[in-house]
Amino acid sequence: MLPYGRQSITDADVAAVAEVLRGDWLTTGPQVTGFEEDLAGWTGGVPCAVVSNGTAALHTAYAAAGIGPGHEVVTTPMTFVATASTAIAQGATVVFADVEEDTANLDAAAAAAAVTSRTRVITAVDYAGHPAEYDDLRKVADDADALLIADAAHAIGSVYRERPVGSLADLTTFSFFPTKNLTTAEGGAVAAADPARLTAAKRFRGIGMVRERDELREPDEGGWHQEVHTFGLNYRLPDVLCALGRSQLRRLAAFKARRAELTARYNEALAGVPGLRVPVQRAWVDPAWHLYPVRVLDGRRREVYDELRAAGIGVQVNYIPVYWHPVFADLGYRRGMCPNAERFYAEELSLPLFPDLTDADQDRVIDALVTALR
Question: Which parts of the sequence carry N6-(pyridoxal phosphate)lysine (predicted)?
Answer without folding.
Answer: 180
